[in-house]
Design brief:
Rossmann fold; 249 residues; alpha/beta; NAD(P)-bd_dom_sf; 9 helices; globular; two-stranded antiparallel ribbon
């Protein structure tokens, strides 16, 4: 039986520290933290109201067996460590094979598609739930569309989402952006977008996405707006959910 509800990877980073503070404030959640540096983990836990267990593990240099030894101790892995194309797959693989749930804050759709293609069948077999693109950008879009679909069903023909936000890029986000600009996206062997892979087949539910190409006036908001760099990523989260639930496009 798992010792923990959650093991958090990346607690010493910006997004990870926010996640850590949330977990520290939650009652009844038994969690541990995992990272590459004992000293940094100890420092981020200074003054904490409770002291979670600490595991030291470098995902890049550790063997898959070593990673599994940590992963099998929990019901769910939560990771904020990017670039996920570098640090994410060993955790996704371990979770998919062990039947452990996985959630991350990735905004990397290339990684998202790759993990679906490689591990969807494995996760279905083990019962693991692999939830990628679960950060601040994607969740509001995804839940809004899902909630409207639950409310309106087949009457729902489209959703327009406008967001007002103040945002800065953390060091991890900038590192990820730089890596993505330099890396080449691998081609899928499926012959179609892996976002639509469901139970080994292409979902019949495809989602048309129309993103703004420039500044325009939105009557609903009474002001001008324009494209957001994370728009395509947020749309991909919606595409995947729509396909999995066979929602009306």
């Amino acid at each position: 039986m798992a010792q923990y509800d959650v093991i958090l990877f990346g607690a010493t980073g910006f997004t990870g520290s926010l996640t850590l503070n949330y977990l520290l404030a939650k009652e009844g959640v038994k969690f541990a933290v995992c990272g590459r540096s004992q000293a940094k983990l100890d420092k981020c836990l200074e003054g904490a109201s409770k002291k979670p267990d600490v595991f030291v593990l470098d995902v890049l240099t550790s063997s898959q067996d070593e990673i599994k030894e940590v992963v099998k101790k929990t019901k769910c892995v939560c990771t904020t460590v990017g670039p996920f194309v570098l640090y994410g797959e060993p955790l996704v693989q371990a979770c998919a094979e062990l039947g452990v749930d996985y959630v991350d804050t990735s905004g990397e759709s290339t990684f998202f598609r790759g993990m679906i293609e490689k591990y969807d069948a494995v996760a279905r077999e083990s019962g693991a739930r692999i939830v990628i693109h679960c950060g601040q950008d994607c969740v509001p879009w995804d839940l809004t569309v899902w909630k409207l679909w639950k409310l309106l069903g087949s009457e729902l023909t489209g959703v327009k989402i406008l967001c007002e936000l103040k945002a800065n890029a953390s060091g991890g986000t900038l590192t990820t952006a730089l890596h993505n600009m330099q890396a080449k996206a691998p081609k899928s062997k499926l012959g179609y977008d892996p976002l639509y892979l469901v139970n080994g087949q292409k979902s019949e539910c495809s989602t048309e996405v129309k993103l703004p190409k420039g500044s325009q006036f939105y009557e609903e908001a009474g002001q001008k707006g324009g494209p957001w760099i994370m728009g395509p990523v947020m749309a991909n989260a919606v595409r995947r959910t729509n396909a999995l639930l066979n929602m009306v496009p």
